[in-house]
Amino acid sequence: MTWWDRLKYEFDKNPSPVRKLIIVNVGVFILSYLFVFVVSQFVHPNGAEQAWTLVKNFFYTPSAFAKLLIKPWTLFTYMFFHAGFRHILGNMLMLYFIGRILSEFMNNRKFYTIYFGGGVAGALLFVLIYNLIPSLAGGAAESVLLGASGGVIAIVMATAVLVPNYELFLFGAFRVKMKWIAMYLVFLDIFFFNSGNQGGHLAHIGGAIFGALFILHEQGRISFDMLKNIRNPFKPKYTILDERQFVREKKRETVKTASSSKSSHHRASGKPHQEEIDAILDKINESGYSSLTKEEKELLFRASDQ
Fold first, then answer.
1. Domain 16-218 fold
2. pTM of this prediction?
């Protein structure tokens, strides 16, 4: 087995999106510094600065619209580059601890959608503010964006909206609910916005907005058609949604039969029976929230409001 085959094996042997994203981020970080080292040692003795300029121009997201139009790939590539060891360490630690929680409730496709969607949303908000309201961006005429924090904050916010009362045991000393962690991080970005790194703060805010909206839409609590029925994102749902992809057909048929047999009673009294709620919760755990019929979603909504 060649070293490349071994590398691919190590990358693919575990399907965890958290693991894969950390490997790619760390790999790009090492390669970028290795590239600068090679240039400075073997190409030009003072070429480190020119090497970093080349990396910045090709991979970081520019704030200028004109440059972004000819380098649209930077909306994605900027997420994998970091300004130093502390920068990547903070992002990867947060991705590791919070991402593992979200991956328990989201399938891999949706996890990647939240991560990359949050990163792109953060970059677009960064470009938008720097061009439309430059005073909010510190008056800078041109800047660049780099780092995975837009996608990471999207993961944090999505987790907080999905399971707001999930508790983390921080520093082995005290328990904190996810909703308070997310709110604290957003507060820091707003409070310290004018203290520097406005681009980073904008990326965090854009990622947080995307993460929250994605989960709210998945739960049916908002509609992107008319943005109806927007509710408190930190209000716990009646149940935790499980997005694991397996279906037990016999169980689904049982739930469907039970729901149909009680439908006339729902219309008469509006109060669902506990066994019907239990059957619907079992269906969610088996097949996910999206497998529910319209009537079952309405039934679960009435039960949560009682």
1. Rhomboid-like fold (1.20.1540)
2. 0.71
